[in-house]
Amino acid sequence: MDPQPFDNKHDTHSEVLVHQFGIRKNGLIINKKFQLKFVAIIFGYSLLVWALAYASITYFNLTLLTTSLSSVFLMTVGGLFLSRKIAGPLYKTHSAMIALGQGHFVKDIKFRKNDFFPEFVNALNQQMSYISGLKKQTKETETVSGKVLSFPSIKKAA
C-alpha cells in the first residue's frame, strides 16, 4: 500500500501509521504483514528441522546427540539467512538516512526481491524525492533573488 500524504483527519503519529501502513503501535500485532510472514517462515523451518530429526532417528538410527547437533546447525544456518532479509534492509535504510543527514541524496534505493520492510524503502525514496525537490526550489529562488537584486534600479534604491 503506497503511503498517502498527511491529511488533518489523523492527529497522531500512531493514527497515521495505522491509516497509511496498517501498522499498530500497541498490542502484540504491530506490523501484521511482516509478523505473519516471519512466524510462517519460522514455523515452516522448525517443522522441516523436526521432520528431518524424526527421520534421522527413526529411519537412519542416528543418535539423539547427532540429531540434536544437526538440528542446531540447520537452525543456525536458517537463522543467518532469515536475519539477512531483515538486517540488509535495515542497514541500507540506516546508511541512506546517515547520507541524508550529511546532505547527500541517494537516488532510488532498492531492496532485494524477498527482503522484509519494503515500506521503508518506499517511504525513504519518497522522502528523498521531496527533500530533493525542496532543495531545487531553494536554488531556483536564490537564483531569481540574485537576478532581481542585480537590476540597476534596485541597486540605486538600496
Written overview of the protein:
The chain has about 160 residues and is mostly helical. The chain is elongated. The protein has helices spanning about 15-20, 30-60, 65-100, 120-150, 150-155. It has one domain (about 30-155). The protein is built from five helices and no strands. Helix 2 (about 30-60) runs antiparallel to helix 3 and helix 3 runs parallel beside helix 4. The N and C termini lie far apart (about 55 Å).
Brief sketch in words of this structure:
The chain has 158 residues and is mainly α.
Number of strands: 0
What ranges have pLDDT less than 50 throughout 5 or more consecutive residues? none
**Beta-strand content:** under 5%
Secondary-structure element string: HHHHH
End-to-end Cα distance:
54 Å
Quickly give the structural class: mainly alpha
Instruction: Please tell me the total number of domains.
Output: 1
Overall pLDDT metric: 80
Number of helices: 5
- How many strands, which pairing sense, and closed or not: the largest β-sheet? none
Q: How much helicity do the residues have?
A: over 70%
